Amino acid sequence: MSLKELIGQTTTLEVARKAPFGYFLTDGNEDVLLHINDAEREYEEGEKLEVFLFHDSQGRMTASTKIPEISVGKYGWVKVTDINPEIGVFLDIGMQKDLLLGADDLPAHKSVWPKPGDMVYITLRVNRNYLLYAKLASDQVIQSISIKATRKAFNKNVQGHTYRTAKVGSWVYTIEGFKGFIHESQRQQEPRLGEKIEGRVIDVKEDGTINISLLARKEESQDLDADKIFDYLMSRNGAMPYSDKSMPEDIKERFGLSKGAFKRALGKLMKDGKVYQEDSWTFVKKE
Predict the structure, then answer these.
(1) Range(s) of the domain holding residue 100
(2) Which long-range contacts (CB under 8 A, 24 or more apart) does 135-144 make?
């Protein structure tokens, strides 16, 4: 097997000779350069080294003793470092140069492209010119590393990263190792690919996968809605022309809430003695 066929993988080579800019390593048939920037210490002739093979920016086959966590056929979670809207996003795989995950492998809508700090599950692929690129894990790959959830997971909070996005929903791999799905109705906005999410388990399927909601629990949602209404009241010196008699479309336009959610939140404020209603207006109670 030629060294070219080992691009994107690790192999053991012998130090053949030292050069001013690094070391030439050999498998007995071919030589490859270990640049001094990719060497972690000084080496002696005849020493055996485990190295990672790749092509540098000039298209030359190169070795590095800095072994990345991923390789061809080996998957791992890696962090996004930068975005170029024209060509894709860059990933830190533990080498000097970041790896490109190309635009063709990313969602069609750039609004859900990963941002720096997001985590994606990838492996390496080698193109026809023997250059390395990132390849996202397929659903089948995620399935192979997942564990089945039990009914004990129901209503529990989970965290994870999205590994696939679509209009109908988002697919998630959780810290626990569960494979999950967020239906579009269970999120206020679509998470980015690789974004860390936290939600609650609303269903455990027979196959051990879970359904996740990113929406607040009803009581939490009610508190948030009540705070939103009260803040609006205070911004208007304690009075607003909205009450439980207001039209649903007016409530939706002003607060982004359904009339039912608005009435529940208003009811909470009234129960807590913070507001009262009069002539289709709502007022803050004075101390």
Answers:
(1) 76-137
(2) 135/105, 136/101, 136/105, 136/163, 137/75, 137/163, 139/164, 139/171, 141/75, 142/171, 142/173, 142/179, 143/179
- Measured CA to CA in angstroms, residue 225 lies from 261, 265, 267, 268 at distances of 8, 6, 11, 10
Q: How far is CA 213 from CA 40, 46, 179, 181, in A?
A: 47, 58, 14, 9
Q: pLDDT tens digits for 53-68?
A: 998 777 788 999 988 9
Q: Which residue has the higher pLDDT, 223 or 235?
A: 235
C-alpha torsion 77→83→87→92, nearest 10: -30
pLDDT in tens, 149-203: 999 999 899 999 999 998 899 999 999 999 999 999 898 889 999 999 999 999 9
Domain tally for the chain?
Answer: 4
The pair of three-digit structure tokens given for residue 112, joined into one six-digit string: 């859900």
279 and 232 fall within a common domain: yes
Question: Contact 89/106 with Cβ under 8 angstroms?
Answer: yes
What CA–CA distance (Å, rounded) separates 84 from 53?
26
70 within a domain of the structure (yes/no) = no
At 14, which CATH number? 2.40.50.140
Q: Domain of 235: which CATH number?
A: 1.10.10.10
Examine residue 154 and state whether it is found in any structural domain, yes or no.
yes
Neighbours of 171 (CB within 10 A): 19
Reported pTM? 0.73
Q: Quick one: tokens of 40? A: 């972690």
Neighbour tally for 272: CB within 10 Å = 11
Give the pLDDT score at 2.
80
Q: Is 273 exposed, middle or buried (0-12, 13-18, 19+ CB in 10 A)?
A: exposed
The CA R_g of the chain, rounded to the nearest whole Å, is: 28
Question: Of 161, 178, 213, which marks where a domain is finished?
Answer: 213
34 domain residue, yes or no: yes
* 69 belongs to a structural domain: no
